[in-house]
Amino acid sequence: MTGGNVERRHSLFPDFDDWFGRGFPGLPGWRPATAAHSIPVEVTRDDGAYVLRAELPGMDPNDIDVTVDDNLITVTAEHSESEDDKEHSEFRYGSFRRTVRLPVPVPDDGVDASYTDGVLTIRVPVPDEEPKTGRTVPVKRGGSAITGDTA
Q1: How far apart (Å, rounded) are the C-alpha atoms in residues 98 and 61?
Q2: Calpha distance 13→25 (Å, rounded)
Q3: Residue 114: beta bridge partners?
Q4: Contact partners, residue 29, CB within 8 Å, separation at least 6
Q5: β-pairing, 49-55 with 119-125?
Q6: Fewest beta carbons less than 10 Å away: which of 1, 43, 89, 121?
Protein backbone atom coordinates (compact mmCIF):
# COMPACT_ATOMS: atom_id res chain seq x y z
CA MET A 1 0.00 0.00 0.00
CA THR A 2 2.66 2.47 -0.99
CA GLY A 3 1.72 5.92 -2.14
CA GLY A 4 -1.90 5.62 -0.97
CA ASN A 5 -3.73 7.50 1.69
CA VAL A 6 -3.58 6.04 5.14
CA GLU A 7 -7.00 5.05 6.43
CA ARG A 8 -7.71 6.45 9.87
CA ARG A 9 -9.94 4.41 12.06
CA HIS A 10 -12.05 6.13 14.63
CA SER A 11 -12.83 4.42 17.89
CA LEU A 12 -16.32 4.36 19.31
CA PHE A 13 -14.79 5.72 22.53
CA PRO A 14 -12.72 8.89 22.78
CA ASP A 15 -9.20 8.81 24.16
CA PHE A 16 -8.81 9.35 27.90
CA ASP A 17 -7.07 12.60 27.01
CA ASP A 18 -10.26 13.78 25.32
CA TRP A 19 -12.33 12.93 28.39
CA PHE A 20 -10.08 14.10 31.20
CA GLY A 21 -7.44 16.38 29.70
CA ARG A 22 -9.61 18.84 27.84
CA GLY A 23 -13.03 18.61 29.49
CA PHE A 24 -15.90 16.25 28.96
CA PRO A 25 -17.22 15.98 25.39
CA GLY A 26 -20.29 18.13 24.98
CA LEU A 27 -19.42 20.14 28.10
CA PRO A 28 -16.70 22.56 27.03
CA GLY A 29 -15.33 24.64 29.85
CA TRP A 30 -16.64 22.36 32.61
CA ARG A 31 -13.83 23.65 34.80
CA PRO A 32 -15.12 26.29 37.25
CA ALA A 33 -14.16 29.82 36.26
CA THR A 34 -12.66 30.44 39.71
CA ALA A 35 -10.28 27.48 39.50
CA ALA A 36 -6.66 28.30 38.74
CA HIS A 37 -4.43 26.26 36.49
CA SER A 38 -1.35 24.76 38.12
CA ILE A 39 2.05 26.04 37.07
CA PRO A 40 4.79 23.46 36.34
CA VAL A 41 7.84 24.20 38.51
CA GLU A 42 11.26 22.83 39.38
CA VAL A 43 13.39 23.71 42.40
CA THR A 44 17.17 23.26 42.52
CA ARG A 45 19.92 24.37 44.87
CA ASP A 46 22.80 26.14 43.17
CA ASP A 47 25.66 28.36 44.41
CA GLY A 48 24.19 29.10 47.84
CA ALA A 49 20.65 29.73 46.57
CA TYR A 50 17.43 27.88 45.89
CA VAL A 51 16.36 28.40 42.29
CA LEU A 52 12.67 28.02 41.48
CA ARG A 53 11.83 27.91 37.78
CA ALA A 54 8.19 28.12 36.64
CA GLU A 55 6.88 27.58 33.11
CA LEU A 56 4.64 30.50 32.13
CA PRO A 57 4.76 30.70 28.33
CA GLY A 58 3.23 33.69 26.59
CA MET A 59 2.87 35.79 29.73
CA ASP A 60 3.57 39.45 30.20
CA PRO A 61 5.87 39.87 33.25
CA ASN A 62 3.51 42.61 34.48
CA ASP A 63 0.79 39.94 34.84
CA ILE A 64 2.91 37.76 37.16
CA ASP A 65 2.94 38.21 40.94
CA VAL A 66 5.38 36.59 43.37
CA THR A 67 4.58 36.66 47.09
CA VAL A 68 6.52 35.28 50.04
CA ASP A 69 5.25 34.17 53.44
CA ASP A 70 7.83 32.55 55.77
CA ASN A 71 9.07 29.59 53.68
CA LEU A 72 6.25 29.67 51.07
CA ILE A 73 6.62 31.23 47.63
CA THR A 74 3.40 31.77 45.69
CA VAL A 75 3.36 32.56 41.99
CA THR A 76 0.11 33.84 40.48
CA ALA A 77 -0.49 34.95 36.91
CA GLU A 78 -3.33 35.92 34.63
CA HIS A 79 -3.36 35.16 30.91
CA SER A 80 -6.16 36.87 29.01
CA GLU A 81 -7.58 35.33 25.87
CA SER A 82 -7.38 37.36 22.69
CA GLU A 83 -10.58 38.39 20.95
CA ASP A 84 -9.48 36.81 17.65
CA ASP A 85 -11.70 34.12 16.12
CA LYS A 86 -9.91 30.80 16.42
CA GLU A 87 -10.41 27.65 14.41
CA HIS A 88 -8.60 25.62 17.09
CA SER A 89 -6.72 26.47 20.28
CA GLU A 90 -5.03 24.41 22.97
CA PHE A 91 -3.65 27.44 24.80
CA ARG A 92 -4.59 27.89 28.44
CA TYR A 93 -6.16 31.13 29.50
CA GLY A 94 -7.31 32.38 32.87
CA SER A 95 -5.70 32.28 36.30
CA PHE A 96 -2.55 30.36 37.13
CA ARG A 97 -1.30 29.71 40.67
CA ARG A 98 1.37 27.64 42.40
CA THR A 99 2.72 27.66 45.96
CA VAL A 100 6.07 26.03 46.75
CA ARG A 101 7.40 25.31 50.23
CA LEU A 102 11.15 25.74 50.68
CA PRO A 103 13.00 23.95 53.51
CA VAL A 104 14.16 27.29 54.96
CA PRO A 105 12.45 30.64 55.56
CA VAL A 106 12.81 33.08 52.68
CA PRO A 107 15.04 36.00 53.73
CA ASP A 108 13.77 39.58 53.49
CA ASP A 109 16.60 40.66 51.18
CA GLY A 110 18.32 39.18 48.17
CA VAL A 111 15.37 37.42 46.50
CA ASP A 112 15.45 38.00 42.74
CA ALA A 113 12.78 37.20 40.10
CA SER A 114 13.24 37.42 36.33
CA TYR A 115 11.22 36.27 33.31
CA THR A 116 12.88 35.14 30.08
CA ASP A 117 11.63 33.00 27.19
CA GLY A 118 8.48 31.88 29.02
CA VAL A 119 10.25 30.84 32.22
CA LEU A 120 10.04 32.69 35.52
CA THR A 121 13.21 32.22 37.59
CA ILE A 122 13.25 33.07 41.29
CA ARG A 123 16.56 32.97 43.19
CA VAL A 124 16.35 32.73 46.98
CA PRO A 125 19.65 33.02 48.87
CA VAL A 126 20.22 30.29 51.42
CA PRO A 127 20.90 31.81 54.83
CA ASP A 128 24.18 30.88 56.42
CA GLU A 129 23.59 28.01 58.78
CA GLU A 130 24.96 28.34 62.25
CA PRO A 131 27.15 25.38 63.06
CA LYS A 132 25.26 22.99 65.24
CA THR A 133 27.06 21.90 68.35
CA GLY A 134 26.26 18.86 70.37
CA ARG A 135 25.19 19.17 73.96
CA THR A 136 24.53 16.79 76.78
CA VAL A 137 21.09 16.51 78.33
CA PRO A 138 21.11 15.41 81.96
CA VAL A 139 19.03 12.36 82.77
CA LYS A 140 17.05 12.46 86.02
CA ARG A 141 16.12 9.44 88.04
CA GLY A 142 12.45 8.58 87.49
CA GLY A 143 9.90 7.83 90.20
CA SER A 144 10.71 10.70 92.54
CA ALA A 145 8.44 13.74 92.66
CA ILE A 146 9.99 17.06 91.81
CA THR A 147 9.31 19.57 94.52
CA GLY A 148 9.65 23.27 94.29
CA ASP A 149 10.22 25.92 96.90
CA THR A 150 6.98 27.07 98.46
CA ALA A 151 8.39 30.10 100.22
Answers
A1: 16
A2: 11
A3: 121
A4: 23
A5: antiparallel
A6: 1
